[in-house]
Design brief:
single chain, 182 residues, alpha+beta, four-stranded antiparallel sheet, 6 helices, 49% helix
């Protein structure tokens, strides 16, 4: 009996890219730690500025905390760099007419990439992925160390295909699949 497959053409835009990479970053402990330290530094700077406001005025007290408040630049710079990187990737893909296809089955997946530069094919089993996380907009297929693949749900042919993929992931990954119930 032939195995059931789900075929997806990966077409993402800048909003998809930023949403998925941001979600992916939040799965990385180092990134979460940096954001937590940034938040603590800003809270501390505001506390000191408010505490010292009576003695020197709030504006001057806040200005005295400027070195600590520079930590606010970390998430801002990161957001702009994600936008720039995403725009470059999308522009490169469009310039070379790159198309990415995935065929998923209970056995694993096949990735086919075609472009003006030729064709490339890669296959693997579900063990390639450390876990799969479903969000309202996409599936994140996380690799064991860093990174992953994101599949926007709008790239699936139908809601039925999304449901079949969800079932396939659940069977293949078990507890390593964090799926929505709908």
């Amino acid at each position: 009996m032939p195995t059931e497959t789900v075929e997806v053409e990966l077409r993402f835009d800048l909003a998809d890219y930023i949403r998925a990479t941001t979600r992916l970053l939040f799965t990385q402990p180092t990134f979460v730690g940096i954001l937590a330290l940034t938040a603590l530094a800003v809270i501390y700077a505001m506390y000191v500025a408010i505490r010292d406001a009576g003695a020197m005025g709030f504006g001057q007290a806040l200005w005295a905390q400027a070195p600590i408040l520079l930590f606010l630049l970390v998430p801002i710079v990161l957001w702009f760099s994600l936008r720039r990187q995403g725009a470059r990737i999308i522009a490169r893909q469009r310039a070379s007419n790159e198309r990415i296809f995935y065929v998923f089955s209970d056995d694993g997946f096949v990735q086919r990439v075609t472009s003006d530069h030729g064709r490339n094919e890669h296959s693997g089993t579900w063990d390639t992925f450390a876990k799969v996380v479903e969000t309202p907009h996409e599936f994140l297929l996380l690799l064991p160390r860093q990174g992953g693949v994101f599949l926007p749900k709008r790239c699936f042919a139908s809601p039925d295909q999304v449901a079949r993929f969800r079932d396939m992931v659940g069977r293949a990954l078990g507890d390593r699949a964090k799926l929505r119930s709908n």
